[in-house]
Design brief:
The protein is an alpha+beta fold. Helices cover 59% and strands 11% of the residues. The protein contains 18 helices and eleven strands. The strands form three sheets. Strands 3, 4, 5, 6, 7, 8 and 9 form a seven-stranded mixed sheet that branches. A two-stranded antiparallel sheet has the order 1-2. Strand 1 and strand 2 form a beta hairpin. The protein starts with 8 loop residues before the first helix and ends with a helix. The mean pLDDT is 97.
């Protein structure tokens, strides 16, 4: 029996990070639930043991059910008839297994039927699920929408909707439209208040909606007549039980074929306001998207894990010129860099998740009582850290997922181009990760202020100052010199006072900052466990040294006036 948790010691390593003690204390409110629920943990060690056992069970489901059915799901896909979606048989089996095991509403409070888990173990589950079948993550993982409902919905909405999610009902977030993709300010789905019925009605079309025939939807719609920008948008809850929404079609996609990506028609669909009017895009969707972006980072990491393992297995069995191809430098070079990118992805994914856990839980505690001055400072610190790392996590891990699946096919050679090999499917599945929930280019837009205001530089120096093992010290010294070059490049670009030139160079500065941050995180991890991460840390620092030099050379030798040349 395959178990994706037991065979991946890096997951348990991150589960036992020192900051997890603070996270469990906050999440469990100093373990007060032990007096109310038999299964609530009594202390930190008990909480970690609980996460560990649940992750082990999820790891078994991922290996024995999701991965085993992923190929058939890819071929069969979902279908639509009379406006309703039917999942592929393999997807149904996976959902049944997760529901029966009680793994819906993972991060929701126990009083609402959830497991009350922090984000970290939830992202670990998403990581494993995506390794098994990236499509399934787009169905099961959208329980993440319940976090936004919990954060901004009313107590009454909590009681009516969240227990249903915890019991196994699915969710979707209905944001994009035919003329409003990345530019959500252009959303025109109309929300009209009915005085007679004392409810809202939604009319219009949504497109590219993942899991679009879900039971409970969070819908972005225009509630303010006469508006054309984001200030006229509100968030609504639509319950499929009320009718009024039909699936016009399921998109025929390159990859993630098991995930129903739908075009929806809303015709007098009864809905209720979530939160306050006019804050749909400005506040609620931003929170929703940040959670989704972390989920895509987990999905990307799981795909990278699958790609690396497929490449390793094939290279160990495929013989050419009298020996297996894993022994050729051209091959083991690729394999080692794949593993380094995987470990770097996991490092930034779980660092970001820990930051999100601290500030989100403090936000929740603030609803119960006033925070102390120390807690407010902690909340502010981790909120900013999470906000700065989320676009790095989403952008870099999704790009690495694409690179690792590309390299996985390359290791397979001609066989990798054939449908019977897993690498062909995951290559197609990976492609969307750097597009949906905000393209890599939009992650650059989200991150660039942390480049120009010096926040990333401060973070790099802080990681540099952390204690490191003797083996890591030379790598940290190399990273320090590379950070000097990054700082010089940032100063060179910003000193020109040319916004278009800054935008043109933003992707390069983002990648310099991202790779340096991920390298530092790997060095910190390797200090804690040389056995797991020392090799990857060394390989990754070698790899990014060339990347930093490439970007540095481009920036320092580029005449800002040449931006015009790229337009023509």
């Amino acid at each position: 029996m395959a178990n994706f948790y037991k065979d991946t010691p890096a997951l348990k390593f991150h589960l036992e990070h020192p900051l997890m003690r603070r996270i469990t204390e906050l999440k469990e409110r100093n373990f007060r639930d032990k007096d109310v629920y038999d299964f609530a943990p009594v202390d930190h060690e008990d909480a970690i043991d609980s996460y560990d056992k649940v992750l082990e069970t999820i790891g078994e489901i991922c290996g024995d059910i999701l991965a085993a059915n992923a190929e058939s799901v890819d071929h069969e896909g979902p279908t639509v008839e009379n406006g309703r979606v039917t999942y592929a048989e393999g997807t149904k089996k996976g959902l049944d297994a997760m529901v029966q095991a009680g793994f819906m509403g993972v991060a929701m409070p126990r009083r609402l039927g959830g497991l009350n888990f922090p984000i970290v173990p939830y992202m670990m589950a998403a990581d494993m699920v995506s390794r098994g079948d990236a499509c399934f993550e787009n169905v099961w993982g959208l329980q993440d929408c319940a976090e936004t409902l919990y954060e901004f919905g009313s107590p009454d909405q909590h009681e009516r909707y969240i227990p249903r999610v915890c019991a196994g009902e699915t969710m979707s977030m209905d944001l994009t439209e035919p003329d409003a993709g990345s530019d959500l300010q252009r959303v025109m789905l109309k929300a009209t208040w009915s005085e007679a019925d004392q409810c809202w009605y939604l009319n219009g079309v949504k497109r590219f909606i993942t899991n679009g025939d879900a039971d409970i939807h969070l819908v972005l719609a225009r509630s303010e007549e006469g508006t054309t920008d984001g200030r006229g948008l509100s968030m609504f809850i639509y319950d499929k039980r009320n009718g009024g929404v039909n699936v016009r079609r399921i998109e025929n996609k390159l990859g993630i074929k098991g995930s129903p990506t739908c075009e929806l028609t809303f015709k007098n669909a009864k809905a209720e306001l979530c939160g306050e009017r006019r804050l749909g895009l400005i506040k609620y969707v931003m929170a929703l998207m940040n959670g989704a972006r972390l989920g895509i980072a987990a999905q990307s990491t799981g795909i990278s894990e699958c790609a690396w393992r497929e490449a390793m297995d094939y290279s160990a069995s495929r013989a050419q010129f009298g020996k297996t191809i894993e022994n050729f430098p051209a091959v083991y070079d690729i394999l080692s860099v794949m593993k380094a990118k995987l470990d770097a992805s996991r490092a930034v994914l779980y660092e970001t998740s820990r930051f999100v856990d601290v500030y989100k839980t403090l936000n929740d505690i603030q609803r119960e009582r006033q925070l102390t001055a120390e807690e407010r400072a902690e909340q502010k610190k981790y909120s900013r850290l999470a906000d700065s790392l989320t676009p790095i996590a989403k952008g870099m891990t999704s790009e690495y997922a694409n690179q690792n699946t590309y390299d996985c096919i390359q290791i397979h050679g001609g066989s990798g181009f054939m449908k019977e090999y897993t690498c062909e499917r995951i290559y197609r599945d990976a492609r969307i990760t750097s597009i949906y929930e905000g393209t890599t280019q939009l992650q650059v837009v989200a991150a660039i202020r942390y480049v120009t205001n010096g926040f990333y530089l401060t973070q790099l120096r802080d990681y540099e100052a952390q204690p490191h093992s003797e083996q890591m010290q030379p790598l940290v010294s190399r990273l320090s010199a590379l950070t000097d070059k990054y700082a010089e490049a940032v100063e060179f670009v910003t000193s020109k006072g040319n916004q278009e030139y800054l935008d043109f160079m933003a992707r390069r500065l983002y990648e310099m900052a991202g790779t340096l941050l991920m390298a530092h995180l790997l060095c910190v991890d390797a200090t804690r466990s040389a056995e797991l991460f020392e090799k990857s840390a060394k390989v990754y620092v070698n790899y990014i040294s060339a990347e930093i030099e490439k970007h540095y050379s481009f920036i320092m030798n580029f005449d800002p006036a040449d931006v015009e040349m790229y337009k023509k």
